[in-house]
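Ticket opened by: R.M.
Priority: normal
Category: complex prediction / small molecule

The reporter submitted a protein together with pyridoxal-5'-phosphate and asked that the result be attached to this ticket for the collaborator who will pick it up next week. Submitted input follows.
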Amino acid sequence: MTPVDENRTERVDRLDGVHAWHPFTQMSEHRAHPRLFIERGEGCWLYDTEGNRYLDGNASIWTNVHGHNDPDLNAALVGQLERIAHSTTLGLAHPTGTRLSEKLASIAPEGLQRVFYSDNGSNAVEIALKLSFQYWQLAGQPEKTGVIALNGAYHGDTFGTMSVGDSGGFHGRFSPWCFPADRVPAPVCDEAGGIVHASDMSASLARLDELLAEKAATTACLIMEPWVQGSAGMRLQPRGFLKEVAARCRRAGVHLILDEVFVGFGRVGPMLVCREEGVEPDFLCLAKGLTAGYLPLAATLTTEAVFEAFLGRFEEYKAFYHGHTFTGNPLGAAVAHKSIEKIEARMADGRHAETLAAFEAAVLNYGLGSGLFPVVRQRGLLAALELPARPVAERTGLKVALEARKHGLIARALGDTLLVVPPLVISSDEIEFLFQQLTRATQIVLNASPSPTGA
Ligand SMILES: *Cc1c(COP(=O)(O)O)cnc(C)c1O
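Result attached by the on-call engineer:
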């Protein structure tokens, strides 16, 4: 171990105060509360500059799969690093990227064999939208420019993804610069611990039928997050909803874009939701868990039919003019390949199923059983625990997250909803610890500031 520098945290804290601007963070709150500097990670645990450890209940913003500092992933990364850290994929290829493409095609639905790389989830979605848009022009149907999206959707923070997203609180002010999208209400599904309390997709499908009857000829694509809208606060969809939507898109000649940036790679159970439901989308967007939380890498998978529409002589200008500098970075590709192999192994020998069962049991016991949370949603390795209604200004969710840190847990709140998203390899003991500390922190915060109504 390196010798302890007594004032280290103080020093970086001062620098953070002067230089840092953190994403999705009200910086006045950030300045007012004790700041935390994560220095290293080991398995599901994060260590701060003071040597305290915290369970990573947020999977480092929904990305971590095999824990931190995983020896296999490290070896894959170092092995690639010793060959080359980056080489462009604009007109060139590298074997690591090509091998990853084959691997991705093997886990994807059969028809998705073409892989277009980028470096984050927003870009993976932008690329799918632009490919769909350009496809219809190349296919002689330039009038197909419309897009359908779900209420509550989140697809990223760039202008294209904000346009199809519906995170009013995050993006509403930018709407004058966004392109229009037709909206379908998200279906209703209340499910936790394997128990379905409510499930209704009729209003969504009725609206979709209306829209398609009226506008299919001018609609390029429908985009959705299958099974769970993560950033909307873990809004679940009934199983089978995706299949219904997919069938309607297919019949209407409208591309289906699936954003599995969050739900992919075992997060909600299966490797990919589309394959689990037997749905073959026209575009599949992957990021977050793709590199197990190691490096920025994203992929947009599509069909041979889409790919072929872009072929032609150079001077026809049919090529897809989109590419980011670090697109398909080999370090990320090497880690992604190893990570997928490790997920496959966990699924094959039953470890993944055991983790899912332990997580579900803990949600039943602590989430529903504690009586602290009026609403609990859960599927796979994700859960949303809604705190009792309090005025926004009380910042109850933030207070619980800050309190949880004192008990060795990193948890993230979306407003007054606590989101639980652990690494896929979390152990039964760690799951117990996570929910124990989260309910304890919640109790402390709720007791300290009783509801103004006394309810
Ligand atoms: C996080 C997320 C994105 C955006 O990915 P970034 O890598 O943050 O750009 C897109 N879609 C979904 C469903 C996400 O959860």
